[in-house]
Amino acid sequence: MTVYWIFLAHKENTMSSLEDDLKQLIIDSLDLEDISVEDIDSQEALFNEGLGLDSIDALELGLAIRKKYNVRIDAEKDDVVKIFASVAALAEFIESERH
Amino acid sequence: MQQDFILQKWAVWPPLQADAEQDLARQGELLASVPKMLKRRLSPLAKIVFCAANQCIDEHTIIPTVFSSAHGELGKSFAMMEMLEAGEEISPTAFSLSVHNAIAGLFSIAWQNKLQSTVVAPGEEGLAAAFIEALGLLQEGAEQVLLVFYDEPMLDFYPFAPFKLSADESCALALRIAKSGEGQALRMSLLPLTGNDGEQPVQLPAFIRFLSAPQAQLTLKTPQHSWRWEKMLNQHSSRGKLHG
């Protein structure tokens, strides 16, 4: 039981630091000059209403993720809408692909 | 060929009398209406195009546009070619903004301007090509047309020196023209005289001098022929309304 708790805490820590890294990657690769990591909510929609990104941003972000995490998002195979839904969804996908 | 038209308004950016601090503040004002998410995509060249154009039209003006640039965003293309050479993947954003009609596209989105937009790469014909396009639109019935000329200095990589085709400074000139009405009447004529006054980036400063000085006419020679612009006297001549 104790072991399980430690594992969970560890996982939450990695996820939240991965989420912060992703937020910084989004800001840097998409030239969001006026936005900081704190401004992006992990659960918030990245496209349309939420952060307001568009289709070119999706391509750019896909490239940035491939370069940084060596994780390829395949539009044919993967559920792109779900993966790009939020920072949390992106982090979950990257984490699952890396293991 | 000879064609008369009215110059309703014109503007150049950066301003002729540069004042770094003041110009930066004014540039901020001129770009204030551009949505934030679009503004991040504006290159330095796109910004000067927007600043010149913005001074010639109101925020909600819907107007056919003709853009003219000898080299467009050549610097962006060059940077991508260097990345390809290094075996790196190129940025989709940079690619989409490197094409010759990229700035015109951003402009149409920012101004919600859904009327036709043409982008000319005029070669040795220089400024005349876009004028012919714009005058054609007026002939077809457009009430007014926005013409925007822009170029920036070429990278040293290109052997431009002997060809008179690189600008010394980045510059954008916007003109709003109409078939009739108030403004400065101008006449554009084709002459058989040949020569070489350079391509658009080299012609542009001469044309701006012609507009801003009490100079009655300007002839620009190309290897094929020449083009002449003359200021005409007109009833409604209201030079005070022109801006430079």
What do these coordinates show?
The complex is a heterodimer of chains A (99) and B (244). Chain A is an all-alpha fold. Chain A has one domain: ACP-like (Non-ribosomal Peptide Synthetase Peptidyl Carrier Protein, Chain A, Orthogonal Bundle). Chain A has four helices and no strands. Chain B has an eight-stranded mixed beta sheet, with helices on both faces. Chain B has a single domain, classed as 3-Layer(aba) Sandwich (Peroxisomal Thiolase, Chain A, domain 1), CATH 3.40.47.10. The longest helix of chain B is centred in the C-terminal third of the chain and has 13 residues. At the A-B interface, helix 2 of A face helix 5 of B.
What layout of secondary structure does this protein have?
The complex is a heterodimer of chains A (99) and B (244).
Chain A lengths: L1 H28 L25 H15 L10 H4 L3 H12 L1
Chain B lengths: L1 E12 L6 H11 L5 H4 L4 H11 L10 E4 L5 H12 L6 H5 L5 H9 L6 E4 L7 H12 L4 E8 L19 E8 L5 E8 L8 H13 L4 E5 L4 E7 L12
The gist of it:
Chain A is mainly alpha-helical and 99 residues long.
> Could you state the order of secondary-structure elements of chain B as H and E?
EHHHEHHHEHEEEHEE
The total beta strand count of chain B reads: 8
Class derived from helix and strand content of chain A: mainly alpha
In the CATH hierarchy, the third-tier topology of chain B is known as Peroxisomal Thiolase, Chain A, domain 1
Low-confidence stretches of chain A: none
State the domain count of chain B.
Answer: 1
Round the mean pLDDT of chain B to the nearest integer and report it: 93
Quick one: biggest sheet of chain B? Answer: 8 strands, mixed
Looking at CATH, which topology of chain A would you report?
Non-ribosomal Peptide Synthetase Peptidyl Carrier Protein, Chain A
Silhouette of chain B? globular
Mean pLDDT reading of chain A: 86
What structural category do the secondary elements of chain B indicate?
alpha+beta
Distance between the first and last residues' Cα of chain B = 28 Å
Uncertain runs of chain B: 237-241
Distance between the termini of chain A: 23 Å
From the alpha-carbon coordinates, what is the Rg of chain B to the nearest angstrom?
18 Å
Count of distinct structural domains of chain A: 1
Portion in strands of chain A: under 5%
Estimate the strand proportion of chain B: 15-25%
Rg value of chain A: 14 Å
